[in-house]
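Tokens in:
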């Protein structure tokens, strides 16, 4: 395995084009056209500090996409992988994506560098460290076990033991709690998805809470994997797919047939008013990742992102990072971006945090403890949560 930039853009994803006045900013090394913006509140040091101090819950973050460049290099060298002249700055430069397809190809290369259970445990602990620095209280972490069985391979039970050990050590040291979404990569077969579904069900006692579906979306709808999705759901493991990112509303409609409590991304739902109504009426939560959508060219610029339109339409939202080190972001930065470009207030961020508490796939006692903790911290900061129009305190997800 050699870490290297991809040279083709044959499968580049065309971003939805939204009208509006434009200006230029830098987007991860690219020039991007964005709309002129005004915000509902002044942006300044006081609000930035309060955003940092807010208690947060993140439900859409990938373990493999959280690897620090220095850690990736250290792991790759330990396994004797060919790095050429690549150094930490070179890894950072690699993490500049021309398209969604380019991102998924490099993501799989990074996964291939993780060859021992200790690698996964280290990533889990380092992810918790990064979360703790941003006042994140709970994480639902997605990882893709099928990618770690290729080549030398790590058996699933060893993968799960590794991330569970990392989560327990992280909880003891930082107080950050973790649960796991076991993700099937769309490019693999339905038979492989059945294996992943079986792993997800077997992993419930060690902290697995859902079966995910990620990877390159075009031509690989959720319905292709209907049998394993329903098999897992019948055994108490819900389906939390990626959709409405590289594919439009039809991808989200396809997922809704499986009654997901949440959808990762889902932003192109905004293109279909009937779908927006369905999401609102069914209380489906969208785990939105604005910087991710910018970096993979799913949207052409910050103000073109439909975050505000979805909120104003009454859709329940959470803010997330997706693959933070690959996209040069963190959860504090996501909040500040939403404040700057979409006028979100601290009260609305508090509402998103409590929405995430209720949408987290937790048993009732754990959810109640997390809810009490987040509410107490918000009260201590003098912040009263605000929710989308027509939405009161959200109902808990089935955990």
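Residues out:
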């Amino acid at each position: 395995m050699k870490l290297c930039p991809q040279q083709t853009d044959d499968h580049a994803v065309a971003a939805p084009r939204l009208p509006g006045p434009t200006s230029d900013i830098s987007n991860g090394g690219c020039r991007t056209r964005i709309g002129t913006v005004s915000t509902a509140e002044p942006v300044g040091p006081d609000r930035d500090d309060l955003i940092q101090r807010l208690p947060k819950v993140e439900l859409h973050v990938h373990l493999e996409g959280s690897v620090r460049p220095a850690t990736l290099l250290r792991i790759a060298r330990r396994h004797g992988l060919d790095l050429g002249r690549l150094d930490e700055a070179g890894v950072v430069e690699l993490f500049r994506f021309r398209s969604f397809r380019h991102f998924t190809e490099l993501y799989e290369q990074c996964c291939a560098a993780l060859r021992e259970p200790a690698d996964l445990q280290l990533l889990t602990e380092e992810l918790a460290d990064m979360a703790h620095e941003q006042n994140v209280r709970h994480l639902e972490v997605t990882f893709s076990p099928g990618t770690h069985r290729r080549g030398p391979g790590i058996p699933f039970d060893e993968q799960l033991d590794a991330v569970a050990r990392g989560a327990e050590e992280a909880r003891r040291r930082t107080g950050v709690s973790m649960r796991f979404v076991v993700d099937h990569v769309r490019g693999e077969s339905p038979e492989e998805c059945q294996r992943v579904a079986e792993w997800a069900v077997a992993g419930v006692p060690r902290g697995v809470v859902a079966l995910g579906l990620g990877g390159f979306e075009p031509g690989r709808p959720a319905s292709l994997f209907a049998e394993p999705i329903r098999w897992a759901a019948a055994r108490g493991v819900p389906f939390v797919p990626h959709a409405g990112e590289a594919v439009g509303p039809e991808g989200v409609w396809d997922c809704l047939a499986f009654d997901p409590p949440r959808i990762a991304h889902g932003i192109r739902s905004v293109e279909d008013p009937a779908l927006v109504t369905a999401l609102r009426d069914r209380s489906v939560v969208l785990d939105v990742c604005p910087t991710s959508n910018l970096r993979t060219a799913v949207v052409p610029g910050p103000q073109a992102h439909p975050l505000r339109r979805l909120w104003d339409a009454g859709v329940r939202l959470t803010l997330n990072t997706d693959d933070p080190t690959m996209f040069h972001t963190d959860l504090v930065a996501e909040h500040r971006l939403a404040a700057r470009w979409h006028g979100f207030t601290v009260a609305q961020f508090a509402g998103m945090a409590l929405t995430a508490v209720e949408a987290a796939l937790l048993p009732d006692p754990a959810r109640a403890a997390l809810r009490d903790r987040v509410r107490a911290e918000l009260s201590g900061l003098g912040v009263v949560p605000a929710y989308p129009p027509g939405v009161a305190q959200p109902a808990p997800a089935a955990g």
